[in-house]
Amino acid sequence: MGRSRELEVLDSLWQSPKAMLLILYGRRRVGKTRLLTHWLRRYPGQGLYWVAEPTSSLTQLRSFSQAIMSFMDPEIDIPADFSYASWELALRQLARYAQDKRIALFIDEVTYLIDVDPEFVGMLQKIWDHWLSDANLMLVMSGSQMGIMRRHLLDYDAPLYGRATAQMQLPPLPYGATAEFFPDYDAADRVALYAMWGGVPAYWERLDADRPIMENLRQIVLPAHSWMVDESRILLSDFITDMHNYVGILRAIADGQQTMGAIAKRTGLASGKASFYLSVLRDTGFVAREVPMSHRDREDSRSGRYVVTDPYLRFFYRFISANQSRLALGQIQPLLDQIEEELPAFIEANTWQELCRQWLLLAGARDAVPVAVDEVGSEWTGGQSFDVVGIDTAGTGGAMTVLGDCFWDDHPVGPEALDTLARKATHALPKRDDAENDAPQPVYLVAFAKGGWTDEAHEKAERIVNDAAGRRRWRPAGIRLLDLATVDRDLAAWSV
Q1: Intra-chain end-to-end CA distance of the chain, in Å
Q2: What are the residues facing 449 on neighbouring strands?
Q3: Do 86 and 151 share a domain, yes or no?
Q4: N or C: which end of the chain has fewer CB within 10 A?
C-alpha cells in the first residue's frame, strides 16, 4: 500500500487511552479513503467509516444516523426514514456508546457537510468540548477541498483549532513505490509514468501494467476515456470557478514561462492581474515559487520562478490541454508522436531533477553521502546554474556544500560534463580572503546520468578529487557519479 508511516500514526492515536481527533487532508485521488478503510479492516467491528455526499443537510443527517444505529446494533431493523433530530443527539449517542469500549469514527469528505451547513463545525466544536473529548473515541475527519478544509478546520481562527490531536496531510506516493506497483516496468518507464501521473494511486489503478507507457497514454486520451481531461478541471474546481485565466497561466508555466514578466506576456495579462492569479494558484499547492538556494532566505528575490508542482497537472498543461481539439477530431497519433519526441527533455528538466534532489536529501539523512544535507534545491544566479544543490545548514552556517547536475540521456555521459561542473563551482562560489586561516570551502560534487558514465568520466572524477591545486575558493570533498539504476534502487529502498 505504501502508507506505512501514515498507518503508524493511526495506530498511535488508536492506542492512546484518550479521545483523539485527527484532521486528514490532501488533494483528490491521493488515497485518503483507501488509507482509512484499510486501517479499519485491521480492527473489524471497532470502527465506523461514513462518507458524506453532496446532498442536503437533512439527507446527510439521516444517512449518518442510520450508519450509527447499524454500527451500534447490527441486528436491528432500522426504518428507512429513521434519523436523530440533530447532529448533536447523534454524536452524543455515539459518545455514550464509546464510554466502555474504544471506537473509531471516520467522517470522510467532511467538506460536503460544511458546504450545506456552515455551522456544522461550530456545532462539532461544542459537542467535542462537552462530550466527545471525554469519550473513548478516535475521530478522524478527512476532506479533499483544501480551501474549505483550511478555513473551517486548519486555520488559526477555525472553530476546531487547538482541538485536533494531530493534522496529517496525505502526500502522493513517492516515486520509490512505483517499483512495487509496476514490477515489470523498467526504471526509465517508471520515471516516465511518474512524470505523467505523479504518485496518485487512483491514476496508477487506471493503467494496465501489461501495456507500454505510451499505449496506456493512448487509451487514456481517447475521447471515450477522457478522464485525464476532466480531472484537471475537477482538481481546480475546489479553489476556483472561472478557470479561463488560471488555465492560461498554468499552460504558460508548464511550457517554460516561469517568471512574472514571461507569464504576463504569454497570457496577455497585466502584471498585477497575473500576480493575483498566481497567488491563488500558490494557495492551491499546485504552483510554487522557487528561488535559488543562495536566495532561500529572500522571498522577494527577483530571481524567483514559478513551477507547477503537481506532475499530472504539469504534464497535462504541457502536452494535452492545448491539444484537446486535435483529440476530439481523433488526431491522437500525431500528438503521441510529439509527446514521445519531447518527453526526454521534459523529464530531464522536471522529474529527473526532482528525483535527484530527493535522492540527495534522503542520502544525507542516511549517511549515504559524507554531508548531512538538510536542505536541497537548485541554483541559477551569477551566470551559473546547478540542477542539484544541497546545504548542511547546521554544519556550515548555510554555505553550499553539494553541487550537482542531472542528465537524461540513454548513452553514458563523458568527462566533459564533469569539467563543466568543476568550472561552474569555481565561478559560483563566493570569493574568499587570502588569510591563511581562511581555507577553501569543501564542496561535494554529485552528477546523475540516466545511462551512466563512461570510463573516461570516472577517471576524470578521480583527477578532480586528487588534483585540488590552484583552487582558492573551494576544494573537492569528494565526487559521486550515479546512474538511473542506482537512484531507482535507493529510492525504492528508502521509500519503505
Answers
A1: 10
A2: 407, 483
A3: yes
A4: C
Tallying the residues shown for the chain, one arrives at 496
* pTM across the whole model: 0.89
Those residues whose C-beta lies under 8 Å from the C-beta of residue 477, and which sit 6 or more positions away, are: 370, 371, 401, 442, 443, 444
Q: Taking residues 102-109, what's their average pLDDT? A: 95
Single residue among 118, 142, 169 that ends a domain in this structure: 169
Based on the fold, state whether residues 409 and 331 are members of the same structural domain: no
Is 383 inside a domain boundary?
yes
Summarize the confidence of residues 378-387 as an average pLDDT.
Answer: 89
Q: Which residue has the cell 455514550?
A: 96
Residues 39, 160 within the same domain: yes
Percent of the chain with pLDDT over 90: 67
Residue 189 counted as domain residue = yes
Question: Residue 405 above 60 pLDDT?
Answer: yes
The residue with cell 532566505 is 297
Residue 354 covered by a domain: no
**Is 1 a residue whose pLDDT tops 70?**
no
- Could you tell me if residue 357 is inside a domain? no
Domain that holds residue 44: 4-169
pLDDT beyond 70 at 400: no
Give residue 469's pLDDT band: very low, low, confident or very high (50, 70, 90): low
CATH of the domain at 428: 3.40.1350
Amino acid at 51: V
Q: Please count the structural domains in the chain.
A: 3
